[in-house]
């Protein structure tokens, strides 16, 4: 068997320890598959004294993780620290500049600096591997970069954040409101103490940005597209959606519309009996539409030490085998900013929930605004009758232009009897 492939691991938390455990448990099978053993030779983290969930005493401790980049006894550096800048970014740059392979699970780093890092990687002939950065155990990066490389992809979308999917599922299944479901997710370890990255859609936006760069070969910046999280979703929305035959899912969507790219992160209604509608709890799902492959949907665990380590080690095995691929499947210098599709270009069906004072003429006023904007209403449901008191009205539309719908919603919000701004969600049938 060939000489061991030697790695240095920076970051010994959930994922770092997951990688160490996985290599220990499956080391023999991995050596057979890679054609050589994979050996951890150095590790680093913030505190050497900290009690770890995995044994690390037998590895050399690098008090500065950056030293691993220059160490000739290390064949690849594995960054499992996190954060878009700081040590993680410095480690990526130093490693790639040294011409050494760099493996990471860091979606924030890739979403913010992916293109620059890819340029650096290609300049120095160093692989940049990031399978674990999107959808954990689902091998979607390899699927898009290699398995579907022959296709023109028209759309990639999915449920990319298990925390949000868990909360939305719990709300529907148990009738809890958003805050209760979030508290439960935190108790179970599915949500951070500060959950804003997940529930505000930022984590999904990071992952979507990486998928967009890879799928469409574009230089995409995640601040360029609209990101909405799930904090606006009420139990009422969930129950209305259910009554109408839908579920609410936080979707990251990247789609070609003519010669433009539409990207968005937002909660959408999807048919309850659709494939994506049946993905529940902490599971992730990614749907890809290729012109020759047709559509495919991959479902799996999007986070956690095990699934994420599985993806990290898959990258390490590829490196040990001597495989080299361009980070985004095509030369990074060809990646250009794409024309963006906006509300003017997007046609969709909509769900709109209104809180109004129950008085004669309100519905007529809303309908008139919809008519004046050329918006065709599919159905209207009013919950309860209580003259002079607040009631909920839900409308669904036929296919309409997003811009017209949003303008109409602004006018509707200005009606005196409308108590709150309308809750407007797209209905996605894909
Ligand atoms: N957890 C998941 O399910 C998951 C899923 C997909 C992707 N990811 C990504 O994987 C990466 C790691 O996540 P994680 O959940 O394993 O994080 P974590 O449990 O918080 O672990 C982070 C590790 O980084 C170390 N660290 C922090 N600052 C450092 C520094 N300045 N120098 C050296 N080491 C430093 C910490 O050291 P100490 O232990 O000494 O504090 C800790 O061991 C992140 O990019 C994350 O986005 C995680």
Number of domains: 3
Strand content: 15-25%
Helix content: 25-40%
| Low-confidence parts | none
The span between the termini is 49 Å
Tally of extended strands? Answer: 17
Short description:
This protein is α/β, with parallel strands linked by helices and 430 residues long.
Walk me through this protein's architecture.
- The chain is α/β, with parallel strands linked by helices.
- The protein has three domains: 5-132, NAD(P)-binding Rossmann-like Domain (Rossmann fold, 3-Layer(aba) Sandwich); 140-301, Dihydrodipicolinate Reductase, domain 2 (2-Layer Sandwich); 347-427, Alpha-Beta Plaits, CATH 3.30.70.
- The protein contains 13 helices and 17 strands.
- Strands 7, 8, 9, 10, 11, 12, 13, 14, 15, 16 and 17 form an eleven-stranded mixed β-sheet that branches. Strands 3-2-1-4-5-6 form a six-stranded parallel β-sheet, sandwiched between helices.
- A hairpin with a 3-residue loop joins strand 11 (283-290) and strand 12.
- The longest helix is centred in the first third of the chain and has 21 residues, at 14-34.
- It is elongated.
- The mean pLDDT is 96.
- The site of NADP nicotinamide-adenine-dinucleotide phosphate has 25 residues, from helix 1.
């Amino acid at each position: 068997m060939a000489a061991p492939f030697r790695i240095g691991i920076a970051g010994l938390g959930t994922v770092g320890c997951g990688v160490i455990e996985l290599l220990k448990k499956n080391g023999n099978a991995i050596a057979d598959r890679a054609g050589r053993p994979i050996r951890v030779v150095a590790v680093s983290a913030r505190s050497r004294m900290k009690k770890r969930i995995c044994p690390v005493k037998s590895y050399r401790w690098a008090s500065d993780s950056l030293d691993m980049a220059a160490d000739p006894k290390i064949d690849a550096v594995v960054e499992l620290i996190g954060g878009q800048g700081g040590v993680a970014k410095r480690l990526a740059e130093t490693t790639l500049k040294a011409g050494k392979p760099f493996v990471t699970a860091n979606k924030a780093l890739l979403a913010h600096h992916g293109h620059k890092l890819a340029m650096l990687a290609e300049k120095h002939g160093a692989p940049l591997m990031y399978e674990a950065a999107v959808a954990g155990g689902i091998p979607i990066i390899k699927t898009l970069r290699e398995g579907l490389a022959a296709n023109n992809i028209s759309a990639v979308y999915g449920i990319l954040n298990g925390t949000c999917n868990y909360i939305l599922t719990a709300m529907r299944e148990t009738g809890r409101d958003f805050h209760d479901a979030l508290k439960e997710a935190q108790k179970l370890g599915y949500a951070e103490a500060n959950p804003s990255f997940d529930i505000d859609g930022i984590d999904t936006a990071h992952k979507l940005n990486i998928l967009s760069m890879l799928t469409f070969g574009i230089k995409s910046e995640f601040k360029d597209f609209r990101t909405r999280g799930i904090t606006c979703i009420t139990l009422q929305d969930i129950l209305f959606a259910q009554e109408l035959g839908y579920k609410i899912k936080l979707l990251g969507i990247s789609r070609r519309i003519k010669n433009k790219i539409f990207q968005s992160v937002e909660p959408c209604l999807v048919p309850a009996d659709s494939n994506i509608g049946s993905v529940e709890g902490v599971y992730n799902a990614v749907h890809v539409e290729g012109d020759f492959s047709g559509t495919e949907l991959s479902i799996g665990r999007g986070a956690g030490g095990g699934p994420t380590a599985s993806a990290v080690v898959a990258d390490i095995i590829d490196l040990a085998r001597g495989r080299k691929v361009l980070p985004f499947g095509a030369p990074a210098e060809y990646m250009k900013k794409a024309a963006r599709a906006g509300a003017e270009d997007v046609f969709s069906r909509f769900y709109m929930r209104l809180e109004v004072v129950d008085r004669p003429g309100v519905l007529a006023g809303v309908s008139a605004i919809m008519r004046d904007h050329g918006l065709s209403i599919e159905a209207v449901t009013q919950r309860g009758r209580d003259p002079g008191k607040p009631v909920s009205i839900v409308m669904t539309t036929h296919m309409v232009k997003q811009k017209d719908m949003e303008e109409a919603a602004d006018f509707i919000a200005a009606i005196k009897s409308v108590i709150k701004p309308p809750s407007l969600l797209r209905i996605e049938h894909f």
